């Protein structure tokens, strides 16, 4: 049903911003909305390929964005105890990241400031 090149399809998207195609002659399943007019299958697939550049569901993207924000806020709170508040406010994200990296030997940060991987220290039992 979804591989018939002679059928008109709709590009559909759900609440998680995941895309698919759906035969235009059928009712849309619950939770899905059509995007644009009916068109040939390949046109739908080409459209999806051009707009769906991040395959992660919306909730996952938002959770990751919010966790980075919370980590940044927590880091600023810790640093505010070590650095004058005016100096802290004037720091660029790069300066803040460098300061955190110098204080935190257990974490490796990438150029974008995100944690790359844990770097466990030598713990003895």
TrEMBL record:
InterPro entries: MbtH-like_dom, MbtH-like_sf, MLP_fam
Pfam family name, one: MbtH
MbtH-like domain ranges (all copies): 2-50
Gene3D superfamilies in the record: Structural Genomics, Unknown Function 30-nov-00 1gh9 Mol_id (3.90.820.10)
Protein name (database record): MbtH family protein
Source species: Streptomyces desertarenae
Source lineage: Bacteria, Bacillati, Actinomycetota, Actinomycetes, Kitasatosporales
């Amino acid at each position: 049903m979804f591989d018939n090149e002679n059928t008109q399809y709709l590009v559909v998207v759900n609440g998680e911003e995941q895309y698919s195609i759906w035969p235009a002659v059928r009712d849309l399943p619950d939770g899905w909305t059509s995007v644009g007019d009916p068109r040939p299958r390949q046109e739908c697939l080409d459209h999806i390929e051009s707009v769906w550049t991040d395959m992660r569901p919306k909730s996952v993207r938002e959770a990751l964005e919010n966790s980075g924000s919370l980590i940044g806020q927590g880091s600023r709170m810790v640093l505010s105890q070590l650095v004058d508040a005016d100096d802290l406010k004037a720091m660029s994200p790069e300066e803040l990241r460098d300061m955190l990296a110098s204080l935190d030997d257990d974490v490796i940060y990438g150029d974008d400031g995100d944690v790359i991987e844990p770097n466990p220290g030598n713990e003895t039992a």
